[in-house]
Amino acid sequence: MVSPIIDTHQHVWNLSRAAYPWLGPELGEINRSIGFDELRPSLVRAGVQGTVLVEAADNAEDTELMFDTAAANPEIVGIVAYVPLDRPDEAAPTLEELKKSSLTVGIRNLIHNQADPDWLLGAEVDTGLTLLEDAGLAFDVVSVLPRHLELVPILSERHPRLRMVIDHLSKPPIGLESRQPWWDLIAAAAENPLVFAKVSGLYSATEDPGSWTVDAIQPSFDRAMDVFGPNRLMYGGDWPVSILAGGYDRVWDGLQEIFASLEKHERNSVLGETGVRFYRIDPQRITSAVAIHGE
Questions:
Q1: What's residue 294's pLDDT?
Q2: Reduced to 3 DSSP states, what percent helix, strand and coil does the chain have, rounded to the nearest 5?
């Protein structure tokens, strides 16, 4: 059986159903409601058979939208939902309810939108992360600042059973002159075997996110392979944010050039097997997703 390709990082948003404070006119063509149907042609072209929906707003309405979208689209095999980690009294019953569905594979908070880069170290959040750890769900870390990446080893020590995945490889300095401090910090984060990373959102760190090239991305990917290995790296398309960097097809094609140098088993890991294992995706949902377009 051919290993299915799973996109582990994809969004939808609906401005009439949920609030997205980070959206605005400065984001141009993605400052609108965007649904799964718009993505499907690119998934078919790429041969992607399943996707994981990831929260796009810190509110319950966005999570409800993701579940409604998944109900209508069997290609969606997992959801990374929102739980208010800084409000443990609310987080506990919300986690209990979310765990009733096998679609729930992880939790995310938009930590990069918090004024305090040490938000994850707060006492209330720490309690929330303990609840998440006890629930056995994964935590997506939206690491965009060096400080965010510095927190990963601290969280690893505080919560030794918590599975974490670093979204977008913590935004490496693609297109910039220096690789530091990212180069060293990503290695320190990877020392915990329960920390994984997504090969996603690898755009230029300059003012023009679409100015990336395959050659510019390659050193960051190579570093990630060195410190994580293929068994802890997973592909994510980061759509529809990727529209700002050239669109799903351009990002997919660029990454395929990079993945072409991998051994078959390594490529299978990055393109599907790692994500399925890390998120503990329900095998029946994988089967149903694959059946839509065939193996």
A1: 58
A2: 50, 15, 35
